[in-house]
Specification:
By secondary structure, the chain is of the alpha/beta class. The protein has 17 helices and 17 strands. Helices cover 44% and strands 17% of the residues. The strands form 4 sheets. An 8-stranded parallel beta barrel has the order 6-9-10-11-14-15-16-17, surrounded by 9 helices. It has a 5-stranded parallel β-sheet with strand order 3-2-1-4-5, with helices on both faces. A two-stranded antiparallel ribbon has the order 7-8. It binds sulfopyruvate and magnesium ion.
Length: 431
């Protein structure tokens, strides 16, 4: 008997999957690959059930002979070990980033005369509804909130991109690229105080109040499912912070990062060029503990951000604070630097990891931007935040367009670099 292999990455079975199995059965014994969590989060939606549950689900389907685990989005390992006579797939992977997977499968099958069978993708209202329901489920507070902790366990490094509006949220949510035979996407969103303030034309000095920040978060949540980390600045008064923790938790925010500064906060990238005061260890530890005391679920995270390197207080001060804040209950440590050279950041991570193997470390490589994610991960970093790059790329593009229209007294000269009208009107999904 011949073997027909297909890979599934779904939590819910619909007509499309049943059709694939039906078609595959015509060619041989049907073996389904259950895509691992690690591969799934780089390529598709976040799983709402475990790999074990997905395996059981696929095994229970009529016409399925066997279920195996596929650990990588590319088929090399599976094809080498299983040598299926046929690989069966929906025909919706001919365009976009998935095309690379198709090409990979074709070349692997070619080596021994295996065949690719492409089944027309099933577009019907029931399938669309199931997709919609899955998305809605992921957007619910109880799913979204815990997802950051799940990601920290699942992936070597959680990749976070700045979002400050529904539109930028959609970019973080939907951008998937294929590069060097791998598919990739961001894991989570950072609601930066710098970018949220900048989008409102305000300075980054805690002037944009919490109600307004919550409004931004809600705009993003309306159209996305990925977890959110809020830049909570100093956390404000402890008496206010505890209420805000409750609100954020209830909304489904996964984490708030608060920095150990007091008084009028200025952006860290000014460093010592402006007056900034660091909070005492005692004062800031009390704020962390009060926040942890206030939260109701185990999902939410309060991450302590240490400004010692920014304020040139030295490595020892940063490390002392890191252990004190962890002891006070912080669920993670963010260490910041505004140096181009990553040396002090990497030294902090190495030394912190000598005594603390577990507490997640967060970095924001705006200045030390030469370090790749893999290197951070080798130094024990768990979360990397690209804190302002969307804002910094959009602003010059918009400014140049405004200047050129003024210069040429018409818009023809700028048109080539604009998104076509046809595309902008279909950018946003309709229900
Ligand atoms: C932000 O994005 O607002 C931050 C990071 O706090 S930084 O601007 O580098 O201080
Ligand atoms: Mg900030």
């Amino acid at each position: 008997m011949k073997t027909a292999y297909t890979v599934f990455c779904t939590d819910i079975i619909h007509d499309g999957h049943r059709n694939i199995i039906e078609q595959a059965r015509k060619y041989g014994d049907v073996v389904i690959g259950a895509l691992s969590d690690e591969a799934l989060i780089r390529y598709n939606k976040f799983p709402t059930i475990s790999l074990e549950e997905r395996i059981q689900l696929y095994k229970s389907l009529d016409g399925v002979k066997d279920v195996i685990v596929q650990n990588d989005i590319m088929y090399n390992h599976v094809i080498e070990s299983l040598h299926p006579d046929y690989v069966v797939h929906g025909d919706n992977w001919k365009n976009g980033p998935e095309r690379a997977i198709r090409e990979n499968v074709l070349s692997l099958l070619n080596e021994y005369g295996g065949e690719l069978i492409e089944v027309p993708y099933t577009y019907n209202p029931a399938v669309k509804k199931i997709d919609q329901q899955l998305k809605e489920k992921l957007a619910m507070p109880e799913y979204r909130r815990k997802r950051l902790r799940q990601l920290i366990e699942m992936t070597p490094i959680v990749k976070v991109m700045e979002a400050h509006s529904g539109l930028t949220g959609l970019i973080v949510e939907k951008t998937v690229v294929e590069h060097d035979g791998k598919l990739d996407q961001f894991d989570a969103m950072w609601v930066s105080s710098l970018c949220d303030s900048t989008a409102k034309g305000k300075p980054d000095i805690e002037l944009v109040d919490m109600s307004s920040r919550l409004r931004t978060i809600d705009d993003i949540m309306e159209v996305t499912t990925k977890p959110i980390i809020l830049d909570g600045d100093t956390g404000g008064l402890t008496e206010h912070f505890v209420y805000n923790v409750r609100t954020l938790e209830r909304m489904g925010v996964s984490a708030v990062i608060i920095e150990d500064k007091t008084g009028l906060k200025k952006n860290s990238l000014f460093g010592t060029e402006v007056e900034q005061t660091q909070a005492s260890i005692k004062e800031f530890s009390a704020k962390i503990s009060a926040g942890k005391e206030a939260q109701l679920t185990d999902d939410f995270m309060i991450i302590a951000r240490i400004e010692s390197l920014i304020l040139e207080k030295g490595m020892e001060d940063a490390l002392t604070r890191a252990s004190a804040f962890t002891a006070a209950g912080a669920d993670g440590i963010m260490i910041h630097s505004r140096k181009k050279d990553p040396q002090e950041i990497l030294e902090f991570c190495d030394r912190f990891r000598e005594t603390d193997k577990k507490t997640p470390i967060v970095v924001v490589p705006s200045s030390f931007n030469s370090v790749r994610e893999e290197e951070f991960s080798r130094h024990g970093v768990n979360i990397v935040i690209y804190a302002n790059q969307l804002t910094r790329s959009a602003f010059p593009a918009m400014q140049k367009t405004a200047e050129d229209i003024l210069k040429y007294h018409r818009a023809k000269e700028v048109d080539d670099r604009l998104m076509p009208i046809k595309e902008i009107i279909t950018l946003i999904d309709e229900l």
